[in-house]
User: What shape does this take?
Amino acid sequence: MEGPLKHLTVLDLTIARAGPTAVRLLTDWGARVVKIEPPLSGSSATGGRLGPDEQNLHRNKKSLCLDLKATQGRQLFYELVEQADIVVENFRSDVKFRLGVDYDTLKALNPRLIYASISGFGQSGPYAGRPGVDQIVQGMSGLMSVTGEPGRGPMRVGVAISDTSAGMFLGQGILLALLHREQTGQGQWVHTSLLEAMLNKLDFQGARYTMTGEVPEQQGNDHPTQVPMGTFEAKDGFVNIAAFGEVMWSRFCATLQAQELLEHPDYQSAADRAAARQPLKEDMNQVTRRYTVEELVTLLNEAGVPCGPINNIGEAFENEQVKFLQMAKAAAHRELGQVALIRSPINLSAFPQETAFDCAAPNPGANSVDVLKQFGVSEERIDSLLETGVIS
Assistant: This one.
């Protein structure tokens, strides 16, 4: 596919979710990505690749099944590295050294190489060797302590936020390293971790602790600092409303004919409303319950007060604005037919979104022979590697 990264070749050693999220940024914008995975064992020819998660993570790639534990396989990988621009991995920190695919080893083969890594807790330090998965890091980072309703215990975020955040940050780091290479000709090692990503994602709540020592707590569906902003009851469901600040507060009251709120002595200033957070919410619910979700969304947005429905995922993708943005994008798969996957949220005027992905996620090893031919490996050698099981 055409894209600003079409001149780049990426060797993808990633597994799970965080690493593939980083690679997806590259392949969505035209990079030539070869997913290197171990030869399949047993009777399965798909490796679980046909499900929605795998399809969405690995679209637009080619798959090469290559045994990195075999001497011939490792040597072949080194030859690919010499022609590559980027290698991405998210092994536990010691695995890359056991396989001989660590940064120093590959840098000696290709000084221009950008080597990108994600781990659970960092490449060094007392926890570097620990396995790290999303939910463990959500808990360790403090995120679960500010998620959920007060008094109900910690709550995980409903998506794999540390995995996907680390992947997005690594993708940004790769692009920064590419800019540096354009100026210097030199590659480098780019790395982040799930823990670093989540501590960064705490953002202003984290900064409240680092600057003042304040430990933020759970606020449920209400904003931690802006009042009133949160979830409110409608006649037939719930909505989110942001009516903080003097202008939006007065608009909210006028639009919903809530003069009693506007004149209430305890709600006369932003500081007053923040101090009376809970009774204010109860009084606002008395007002919002007079209206349906549709009425609240229409009336308040027309008045310039942000208000939105609380959709399930199906309703979100069927929303008229989401349909207009065409967030679901087609990909052709040999076995599955046309599948709809989620496109990149980035929009570039010089590279308008294509109507379809270049290809769906390939089954493991589906492109092994073609990929090696493109890297200049002879047919005789490919046949020998197939016979010995080094590739499949």
The chain has 18 helices and eleven strands.
